[in-house]
Write a structure and sequence with these properties.
The chain is of the alpha+beta class and 375 residues long. Keywords: Signal.
Amino acid sequence: MDKKLYTLIGIGLLLLMVTSPVTAQLNNAGDIIQAAATEEGRQDANTLLKAYFDPVGSGFGSDLNTGWFNTAKSHSVLGFDLTVSASVARVPGADRSFNVQELNLKELEYIEEESTSPVTPTAFGGDESNTTLGAYFSYTNPQTGEQQQERVDFEMPGGTDVPYVPAPMVQASVGFVKGTDVTVRYVPPLDLPNDIKLDLWGIGLKHDITQWLPGGKLIPVNISLQAGYTKLNSSIAFDVDPEQGSDVENNYDPSTWEGQKAAMRSNAFTINALVGKTLPFISFYGGIGYETSSLTIDTPGSYPVTVPNEDFPDQSNQPKKIEKIDNPIDISYDDNNSFRGLVGTRIKLAIFNITASYTLSKYPVGQVGVGFSFR
């Protein structure tokens, strides 16, 4: 496949990260990382970001488990098809916001004021948040000798106000003996603009079981079993800058913060039972299945955090200072499992296909595609 086409596919596959909160809100969410100055603060930062990005885990996993087939019928021997499709998962209303007071945060506290609310959007929720969290630390005032308390505030980010998780896909299928199709998804490692990196691969099998049933040749529909696995690795650069101000001591060179990025790894698996009818120009199918997926997001690199300045009482006029922490965020979503029902159709025009499907699951998915096929 042409390198330019690989790049276009790669850019499409990163649509989720480029146009959705994984990047659109990433720098704002990065402010939460600055709360990770202590071990408890780091736990709070991971807890908050896990709740904020929760729809990404379920939605993207549902997308990756979609589009494996466009008929219940298998290819004849060495029959072939190539399909490019786009899937869009819908985020249910309950997953578009969360309450920070229900997260059992250890160090950060919800700052209750007249204009604030403990309910804040997830990455695919509303575009505004009125939630403020604060971390407190104490120091001795060198002029008065009294204990004073300082508070560092963190504003929760808003979402995109678009409750949909998109993901394009390209794949090829070929028919082998005994009504078995092998499907391959593949995008080689790509280095794209804005320090975006991506690679993806997947493999699926579909087997026609009608032939094994009593009187199978007389059954007027095709019955098949299908399974597919997809693995995605990707990363994108972002910036978390140190707090500025005359009351903050910062002894780090700006190059310390280079190389910050968010890395995402996703695995998705589905198994389905299908029944359908293929006619000369159109095919219909329906089925039931089970899907599971996992997602991890971490933040390689060094990041600035604000901490009390232990030199403040003696030789500094700055009660706060900047320290660095490495890879502060490491969150995972491992329980994205659900049963699903699905229906779909394919319109065949000579060798060209137009496909569409709808999957009803925890995160419903609509999918459309185009491609071509032989035999």
